[in-house]
Sequence to fold (453 residues):
Amino acid sequence: MPTGKRAPCGRRDTLAHRSGAIMWLQRSIKRAVGRRLTGARRLVLRREVPALESRLDALPELGLYLHVPFCRQICPYCPYNKELFDADLAQRYTQAALREIDIYADLVGHKPVTSFYIGGGTPTTLLHAGLDRILEHVYASFPMQCDVHLESHVNDLSHDNLGLLLSLGVKHLSIGVEALQDRHLRTLCRPYTVDQAMAAVNRAVHAGFDCVNVDAIFALPGQTLAEIEELGHRMVALGADQVTTYPLFEFPYTRWPQLARQNGYRRFGALRKRRMLRTLEHIFYDAGFRRSSVWAFTRSGVPRYCSVTVPLYLGLGASGSSYLRDVFYVNTFNVRAYCEALEQGRLPIALSLDLSPDMQMAGWLYWRLYETRFRKSRFYERFGRSFDEVFGKYFKLLALAGFLTDDGDEIVCSDRGTYWLHWVEDLFSIDYVGALWGTSGQQPWPQEVVLTV
Ligand SMILES: C[S@@+](CC[C@H](N)C(=O)[O-])C[C@H]1O[C@@H](n2cnc3c(N)ncnc32)[C@H](O)[C@@H]1O
Ligand code: SF4
Fold:
């Protein structure tokens, strides 16, 4: 729905100046923070397969991520690696994933798996097309010390499918509801109504999962604060254990920027988004939820539905990415290239980046701030260095500014600090995701991808 009003000429100049100044400020903050924390001017991911054996051997435990790159529809705003579901390709993909599990099981199969997250795309597209075989193979190949977390789509959540998910060992379910007003569902091109979404969540909430999370997107074209309030209250009323509300991120390689231009959608600034999030925070806190990450709120006493924020993990599937202490690497995004590599007995690794100690510490800090609270002693356990020695002076200033509290060990971000610290993090993540995922979506085996710090 068109919402953008054309500014009169003089006002347009002022707006252009203002957005130029904001962009300059953002670039300067990004450069100052990025170079100071990583000690680098650019990060270059290269087409190299890193040495894995010794690195995997050194891990005490690991997390697993499995990417399912299939969807029944392609949403115009979605940055993730996916293509339309095709039954034959899904079968070939399942075979390839089983082989990838075998390769890693040979290398590291005796180490306990302490987190397992299945994301997409839409993992529930594989529900009758290979998911059971993949899960059984993972259980048979690794000592599992965790439950399974899985992303799902509203239209896949019949009673039978929910029962099947539970029987496969999925205990934590996330549902992409995205909006709870029909006009916004239409803007996002979601193929269901609010009533259908609420009925699906209701079935899931009563099915017996340990945790049901509901995702929504806010800062949608023309969305009002009254609609945000209604969204918050409706999310609480759904009875889910966790609610996650992301502001709409615009990725240049998706169809969204074109759609926004065509329809004259106006973007919300950072202050307006903060106000929207504050409205949601109040509603969720009043309803007894606690903040469990920048965008997620969990009911007290419920284990949180978590995504890939564990310190070390192996990524399986097309576009699966892995983080093993001093190296980050990512599989090819191309589903056919992924299958071919595994059919030839090769790991489908497309790009890798060696991480200096500074980069590892910056990466660790990124995810801990994303979780909004952490213990400094964990930093010492991981890096053998005092957190205060490395980051103390910055955190003192942040505490003085009211962005966080520090009781000597635990750091807890305030709501204001959470939002603005993540705003700075996003100066990196949106650019990096745009460059890495955008290039990888076009070329199965890029020679290199350069990320500017
Ligand atoms: C992989 S999708 C969820 C599962 C399923 N594919 C679906 O769409 O229902 C993961 C979540 O990312 C969020 N998301 C996707 N694109 C986004 C964007 N451009 N901005 C903000 N959040 C986004 C949505 O809340 C979505 O539920
Ligand atoms: S939002 Fe979900 S359903 Fe839509 S394209 Fe992305 S992964 Fe697929």
